[in-house]
Specification:
Number of helices: 5
Oligomer: single chain
Radius of gyration: 22 Å
Number of strands: 7
Number of domains: 1
Largest sheet: 7 strands, mixed
């Protein structure tokens, strides 16, 4: 009987606190899952790239770099943020018992994604959507009434104005851009502003060196909590001519049986 009552309570919590999260998801574009479920090599001009060392580039990085017009699971913007649970409540709502804080946080996590995509569009993204939003397991602090959340965005890149050079004659190079902002800096005033500042810094790093052909922002990560130092980094990739002594050699695939 006790187990039945506890189970019923969880279901009622999900129904009661799920409405706001459901309404948020209804407002999303809805085409990201179809893109992410597409065949791995869909939209690739070729399925391999060469690194500066002559080794093949990992396939996830190939897709993140080459497939601009689609959402791909390896091109993400991840925001980790701490928030008050009271910020997840609608007008007139009150917090449930502490034993239900985890359920509330998980159901309402998508609400914290609102406004994040606008930090990427139209700067580096033509289109952006939320791929996942969950509370970090074990992060709920019932005393402070806070929890940590992990939000993952996927985005379609802004198309290049120039065509790609011959990929067989170039290597893919990569670098990490680290954003260094103090908590009181305007660029770190919110998770949204921090993500926008990181996107701008990544784009500026691409533009700073004319030798970085077709430079693209591949991933961004922001760890933001109010009043704490910001941790933010982005990965960028670009093409350079094959170094002397390196020759293009696409990865070998097993021949079909028969």
């Amino acid at each position: 009987m006790l187990r039945l009552l506890i189970g019923t309570g969880v279901v009622l919590m999900a129904v009661g606190f799920g409405a706001a999260g459901w309404q948020y998801w209804q407002g999303q574009t809805g085409d990201a899952p179809a893109d992410l479920a597409a065949p791995e090599d869909a939209g690739l001009p070729q399925d391999w790239l060469i690194s500066a060392t002559g080794a093949p580039v990992p396939h996830d990085d190939v897709r993140a770099y080459l497939v601009q017009a689609r959402f791909v699971p390896s091109r993400t913007a991840v925001v980790i943020r701490t928030a008050l649970l009271t910020n997840l409540l609608a007008d007139g709502e009150t917090l449930p018992e502490a034993s239900y804080f985890q359920i509330l946080a998980d159901i309402r996590a998508p609400l914290l994604a609102a406004g994040l995509c606008s930090a990427l569009t139209p700067l580096i993204a033509r289109e952006c959507t939320v791929n996942a939003a969950r509370v970090v397991e074990g992060s709920v602090d019932p005393v402070q009434g806070t929890a940590q959340f992990r939000i993952e965005l996927v985005y379609r890149q802004q198309p290049d104005l120039a065509d790609l050079p011959d990929l067989a004659l170039h290597v893919l190079r990569a670098d990490t851009v680290v954003l260094d902002l103090a908590p009181e800096d305007a660029g770190a005033a919110s998770a949204e502003s921090a993500l926008a500042a990181l996107a701008e810094a990544a784009q500026a790093a691409c533009a700073a060196d004319p030798g970085r052909q077709s430079c693209r922002v591949l991933r961004l990560t922001v760890d933001w909590s109010e009043g704490r130092p910001l941790a933010a980094r982005a990965e960028i990739g670009w093409l350079e001519p094959l170094p002397e002594g390196i020759f293009a050699a696409p990865s070998l695939k097993p021949t079909p049986e028969g």
